[in-house]
Amino acid sequence: MFDKEYDVIVVGTGAAGLFAALNVKSDYKILMITKDILENSDSYLAQGGICMLLGDEDYDSYFEDTMRAGRYENNKESVEIMIKSSQDIIKELISYNVDFDKNEDGHFSFTREGAHSTFRILHHKDVTGKEITGKLLEEAKRRGNITISEYTTMVDILEEDNTIKGIVVNANGHTSCIKAKKVILATGGIGGIFEHSTNFRHITGDSFAIAIRHGIEMENINYIQIHPTTLYSAKPGRRFLISESVRGEGAVLLNAKEERFVDELLPRDVVTAAIKKQMEEDNSDYVYLSLIHMPKEEIIYRFPNIYEHCLMEGYDLSKDYIPVTPAQHYLMGGIKTDTYGRTSVKGLFAVGETACNGVHGANRLASNSLLESLVYAKRAAVIVNNEIKDCDFAILQADEKEYIEEYSAMSMDEWFKLNKKTILDEIKRKDREFYDKWCNNEN
Ligand SMILES: Cc1cc2nc3c(=O)[nH]c(=O)nc-3n(C[C@H](O)[C@H](O)[C@H](O)COP(=O)(O)OP(=O)(O)OC[C@H]3O[C@@H](n4cnc5c(N)ncnc54)[C@H](O)[C@@H]3O)c2cc1C
After folding, report:
1. Distance 109 CA to ligand 1 centre (A)
2. What is the tens place of the pLDDT at every residue in 156-185?
3. Which of 369, 31, 316, 351 shows the shortest CA–CA distance to 198?
4. What pLDDT is stored for residue 441 in this prediction?
5. Which CATH number applies to 227-327?
6. What's the predicted TM-score (pTM) here?
7. Pick from 158, 326, 180: nearest CA to 241
8. Residue 117 DSSP symbol
9. What stretches in the chain show pLDDT beneath 50?
10. Within 10 Å of residue 237's Cβ, how many Cβ atoms?
11. What atom in ligand 1 is closest to the CA of residue 329?
12. Where along the chain do its domains lie?
């Protein structure tokens, strides 16, 4: 299924992992692994869209929107790089046949979401993530230098003397070690450790637990975004997101008395806090979202996926108020990186939601994460390309058999519980208030 050695291993096949792999020179042998099937990444779920700088005149406004949403805790250099790279990234996506919606005049149709002061979000109906990630995946499958392995879980990294030497994987119940000159972690966020999250259940922050155990520098693991509007359900499982662009197109939030109680386009954390307060006042597990002012044909054209899903759950968006409730959605923090995805371990990179380069500060501006993932995945690939030619496979001093015995002795369930506890303990240590409010029932 896979060899014993690769030039580069990319862990995760979401937008960040794929874009990193596609930007590593095709001379190098790359292994991409994913815990589940290829299509099950959070990148596929992105509904709202991807931001793009409209032009020089939009720079200050886009920068300020990102900083304000991030409560000015953002790394300014990271924000600047992301915004200034956005147009090139979009061009590169289009070169991979990614299709963004256009107006009748042939120009891009931009939408708007909470805390954006203008319409600067490109989208493909309400399935932008699927469009982008699907096209990147098609391209990766075409590349002869990239091997992709599904149902293959990284359970540990091979790291000695602060240098990466490979990873330990579990595939079909078998544990093995795979050596690599460079490893790129693109395992997404931590939604799977929360009971209520919009993320796939298998996205459980494995890289963070591994990083904590190896003493790799982390940053802001407690900066976790709770999305204000997910479809309320009493059933267990992933929560269905009602994209912010629905509010961007005029949907309003209503309390039990059918009255508005908040400006729907304020930053996510502010809207979430207002909803939580309102739910307490109403003694209810949800508030309502109404889009009934929009003609049905328009709703179906603009939000086909959301419309269909709500209908399946018994709500017609064109007629009914739909019950919504906040749920875990995104991690702003993660493994600390510089602006090239470099971590504190030599040869180990982190990109996408796994990385914290400071772009998002304390709170992410809507539709900045796909862009941030792509911009910094590409920058990591640049360093990999530059450094790898002078790199040999490092000799592993430890005995591979010891890793194999250690992880073979542990069930995946035990391993998951250990990781979950490691991450939640770290969140508790950093931010007791957040932990008590959102994580206390997750143990
Ligand atoms: C419902 C929803 C809607 C969103 N809408 C938007 C939007 O409109 N615009 C926007 O910009 N952002 C949006 N986001 C956020 C955005 O989609 C993600 O932040 C971004 O796509 C993360 O990409 P990623 O490649 O870092 O991780 P992911 O796409 O989550 O991919 C993680 C990958 O890592 C793999 N993996 C995890 N652990 C392991 C392991 N131990 N071993 C092997 N593989 C592993 C997974 O299987 C998966 O392939 C949304 C997120 C959600 C959940």
Report:
1. 24
2. 999 999 999 999 999 999 999 999 999 999
3. 369
4. 64
5. 3.90.700.10
6. 0.94
7. 326
8. S
9. none
10. 10
11. 53
12. 5-223+332-429, 227-327
Q: What is the pLDDT of residues 144-158, one digit of tens each?
A: 999 999 999 999 999
Residues belonging to the active site: 268
Return the pLDDT at 234: 87
CA of 334 to the centre of ligand 1 (A): 13
Q: Nearest residue CA, atom 26 of ligand 1?
A: 352
Nearest CA to ligand 1 atom 14: 46
Pick from 370, 372, 407, 410 the residue to mutate for probing ligand 1's pocket: most ligand atoms within 8 Å of its CB.
370
Contact 122, 110 (CB under 8 A): yes
pLDDT tens digit sequence for 16-57: 999 999 999 999 999 999 999 999 999 999 988 999 999 999
Task: Output the furthest CA–CA distance in the chain (Å, rounded).
Answer: 67
Question: DSSP letter string over 68-110?
Answer: HHTTT-S-HHHHHHHHHHHHHHHHHHHHTT----B-TTSSB--
Q: Which CATH class is domain 5-223+332-429?
A: alpha beta
Distance, CA of 334 to CA of 217 (rounded, Å): 9
